[in-house]
Amino acid sequence: MKDYFRTYPFSTLIAVVIVFLSLFNPPHTQLDSVSNIDKIAHFVMYGGLELVIWIEFFRKHKDQPQITAILVMILLPILLGAGLELAQSVLTNYRSCEWADIIADSAGAVAGALAGLTVTKAFPEDK
Q1: Residue 13 falls within a domain, yes or no?
Q2: 3-state DSSP: the chain helix, strand, coil percent, rounded to 5?
Q3: Residue 36: inside a domain, yes or no?
Q4: What is the pTM of this model?
Q5: Segments of the chain scoring below 70 in pLDDT
Q6: DSSP letter for each residue of 53-111
Q7: What's the rounded Cα separation, in Å, for the pair 77 and 70?
Q8: What is the pLDDT of residues 14-32, one digit of tens each?
Q9: Where in the sequence is the domain holding 61, given as residue range(s)?
């Protein structure tokens, strides 16, 4: 487990921040009036997490990942998002579980994977 945190330090940090942001009671701001701002936030958070996972994976593993590794890299953020949505409905009385949030998380993860693929193909490291 210790090696995982050394291999993926930024991914781990971002995941911890996402867990915190998903479970705390946010203050009301002027952004609350922006339509679908929470969906945009979900998309950006999980897209960013996925992109960082992808980059950290390629930093450690220089070869092209197998399909299993790609699926795991994409599914982990999606499962984190779905799990946190369920946790919000069970552990808090100020948050609820929303399918639209899970869809935004998933779309962000897929977009992050596509961005990660593009970045790693554009800047290949010498072997």
Answers
A1: no
A2: 75, 0, 25
A3: no
A4: 0.87
A5: 1, 64-65, 124-127
A6: HHHHHHHH--SPPPHHHHHHHHHHHHHHHHHHHHHHHHH-SS----HHHHHHHHHHHHH
A7: 12
A8: 999 999 999 998 888 887 7
A9: 1-8+47-127
